[in-house]
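Quick one, tokens below:
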């Protein structure tokens, strides 16, 4: 845990240093919102969407009147939901939660003074994983549990592409984005690989924030 905290503090310091380097052309902000996540597992569809949180800091560094660079430091809950509704044995769901620190770096193109398109890469670092189960088995007894999953059964790094749209309503910002993971979630030769195969993270993110 101390190792996680030191890395996060280092990243926060990097934000502050980068902001001072850009001077008056830079802004720092905070935002939070909703994640609708899934994985590219065969057979998954919209019913497997899992709701989670995203929250963190971002910087907006103007390159000129049209383009800006926007790095972000976000807590992001990913994963997917597995429904048992069609099972003869159980009725309910299990939520597989994968919690990351994501670092997107987006190029911002202003389509208008208060409206922008954003696109770029992201890297995520896995903090931990767990599964929440809420199901009724054989119409007889309930299973309601939250179990930690071994972190080393998943790849520690996630990476991919992110694109979205954002409105700036000074000092507020609102927007949405889509994260397309390019990294395999499950570690090789682990039980998670048998369940997830080559599955990758996908996330629809909506948020609101404030510029300082």
């Amino acid at each position: 845990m101390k190792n996680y905290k030191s890395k996060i503090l280092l990243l926060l310091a990097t934000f502050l240093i980068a902001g001072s380097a850009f001077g008056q052309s830079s802004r720092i902000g905070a935002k939070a919102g909703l994640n609708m996540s899934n994985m590219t597992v065969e057979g998954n569809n919209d019913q497997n969407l899992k709701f989670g949180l995203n929250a963190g800091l971002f910087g907006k560094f103007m390159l000129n009147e049209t383009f800006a660079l926007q790095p972000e430091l976000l807590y992001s809950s990913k994963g997917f939901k597995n429904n048992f509704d069609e099972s003869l044995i159980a009725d309910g769901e299990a939520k597989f939660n994968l919690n990351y620190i994501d670092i997107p770096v987006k190029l911002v193109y202003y389509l208008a003074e208060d409206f922008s398109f954003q696109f770029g890469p992201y890297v995520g670092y896995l903090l931990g994983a767990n599964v929440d189960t809420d199901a009724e088995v054989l119409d007889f007894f309930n299973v309601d549990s939250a179990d930690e999953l071994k972190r080393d059964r998943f790849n520690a790094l996630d990476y991919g592409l992110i694109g979205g749209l954002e409105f700036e309503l000074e000092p507020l910002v609102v927007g949405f984005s889509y994260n397309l993971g390019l990294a395999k979630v499950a570690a090789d030769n682990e039980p998670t690989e048998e369940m997830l195969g080559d599955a990758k993270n996908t996330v629809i993110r909506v948020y609101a924030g404030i510029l300082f």
